[in-house]
Amino acid sequence: xxxxxxxxxxxxxxxxxxxxxxxxxxxxxxxxxxxxxxxxxxxxxxxxxxxxxxxxxxxxxxxxxxxxxxxxxxxxxxxxxxxxxxxxxxxxxxxxxxxxxxxxxxxxxxxxxxxxxxxxxxxxxxxxxxxxxxxxxxxxxxxxxxxxxxxxxxxxxxxxxxxxxxxxxxxxxxxxxxxxxxxxxxxxxxxxxxxxxxxxxxxxxxxxxxxxxx
Length: 214
Prior knowledge:
The protein is of the alpha/beta class. The protein is built from 9 helices and 7 strands; from the N terminus they run ααβαβααβαβαββαβα. The strands form 2 sheets. Strands 3-2-1-7-6 form a 5-stranded parallel beta sheet. A two-stranded parallel sheet has the order 4-5. The longest helix is centred in the middle third of the chain and has 19 residues, at 105-123.
């Protein structure tokens, strides 16, 4: 039994790239019934990156979904409130940004509790969407998300915008390499460099104009 559990434990981590696994574990990658593509941002709020992204979204008349990090919300609760005030949706990313393959079920519950408390205290909102750091889930963490009645939201396209070599051109090209965005598409981007290459948010913000025009 233990051997079987050990073998299946990391399988959900493949949900972002193997659709049958996503379906089997009730993980949502696309946006069912969405009227338009959904742009999402992870790892914020960030003092420079989040306002830069918000301004570009406003200019394009586009709303997005921000998966917030509890420890970053605690550093700047006002910015978390501004995301909501400007008409965007928020979700839970984590409290501490860690690979869940290295986190116990108990540690995961504690992390979710802390993240949820930080976000609700700062914003007054009750987020019910969740995306794990790196998109990685395990059989030990999935039940806790489902128990809370939250929706697990991954993505269908990404820009690999967290890397040192990412540029506005490479980000937009990767997001759009399969053609214009479709109504069910969910795009993964980052409005923060707290857990990625320093200054990477600048390339993301600059790439938004190209992405949103498509």
